[in-house]
Amino acid sequence: MTSATRRRADAERNIEAILDAALARLGRDPSASMTEIAKAAGVGRVTLYGHFPSREELVDTLFDRSLADADAVLGAVDIDAGRADEALARLVRSSWRVLDRQRTVLVVALRVLGPERVRDRHAAVFARLERLLRRGREEGAFSAAAPPGWQATAVYSLMHAAAQEVDEGRLDAAQAAEALVSTILGALGGGPAGTGR
Amino acid sequence: MTSATRRRADAERNIEAILDAALARLGRDPSASMTEIAKAAGVGRVTLYGHFPSREELVDTLFDRSLADADAVLGAVDIDAGRADEALARLVRSSWRVLDRQRTVLVVALRVLGPERVRDRHAAVFARLERLLRRGREEGAFSAAAPPGWQATAVYSLMHAAAQEVDEGRLDAAQAAEALVSTILGALGGGPAGTGR
DNA sequence: GCTAACCCGAACAATGGTGTTCGAGTTGGG
DNA sequence: CCCAACTCGAACACCATTGTTCGGGTTAGC
């Protein structure tokens, strides 16, 4: 398994620390410097370049990891079970924070890697949500008045907004999930009947 | 009137061009260089510095102008007339594009001017929307389940998402307004009764 | 305990952005 | 028509960032 890239334990630990620090710093400021990231990771700048030959490579790895994270969380939700609106509520509740972190990285990746290399890799994650929305539309749970692509964007954008509000202390994390779910289901036009209370 | 800052006509024209170019370039990339902006404005770099002594000053002016724009458009809508949901629909229809441009500048201003100097100036524009939401809540047109601050953020964030989708060609500008209004009213929990079709 | 893998500070060249100065040319407005 | 206002390219010093090299020190793992 790990025989191909046999690394020493401390190296592995540092790589983790670097990626975590990169996520945090780049999330706040997409143009954060390598020096800044290295310092935040508690690591020398040379060490950083030892593991990631360039800024581009670092962002690329970070993007991959964040994509895999999102995919894992999304995959853990049984999207096809039950009514579509209930499935969406489960999905939102379990993954809005991860999905937002993923979006944070996306902003950086767009700058560093360019739009082309980002779109298709990102589309894979997005597709899960769109499939669920399509099912809900067919079941009549979601409104067919608005374009499906727009609805997916709206859901995504609301999850991001909620995460940001929580991050900046303007919204209580506990009540955020409920507010988010009810707002999203409303936005999709399911009406109060399906949502219940 | 214009006696205080008596400028020549070509200077005035260049200043306009610079601000327009700055809006466009900085909107796409918040760290766009002065050289880039000058070139986009069809103006020499020296001329740019002649009118705006520093990058900070340029962003500051741009921020002011964009805030004034937004305020003007918002002010032109009669917020207190009719039902709250209808008033909101009017507001959204007439100002989502301007309001999004305003948000674009806000991102840049946050980086360059710092959060403190931005918040209060920005709050003035935001307040109009919040007041309308409060009225709608009292009238029962909007749900009281979610926090009011969150609802305002949600509306704002949806307007931004729609503008971005249109900018990137994924959503038709003509149908965007309708989709946006129905999504926003739904998100606020008005239910399908108030919205009609 | 030995060796290879790893860490790291210092110093390097290269690049690109900022803000300024100079000097010559162009243009608006009275 | 004439002058002040304005434009602009070139070149400047300054600074931050990127990515590299060197050389000595530490540590994991067998």
TrEMBL record, chains A, B:
It holds the Pfam family TetR_N. Gene3D superfamilies: Tetracycline Repressor, domain 2. PROSITE patterns: HTH_TETR_2 (PS50977). Residues 33-52 bind DNA. SUPFAM superfamilies: Homeodomain-like, Tetracyclin repressor-like, C-terminal domain. Keywords: DNA-binding, Transcription, Transcription regulation. Residues 12-70 form the HTH tetR-type domain. PANTHER family: HTH-TYPE TRANSCRIPTIONAL REGULATOR BETI, HTH-TYPE TRANSCRIPTIONAL REGULATOR RUTR. This is HTH tetR-type domain-containing protein.
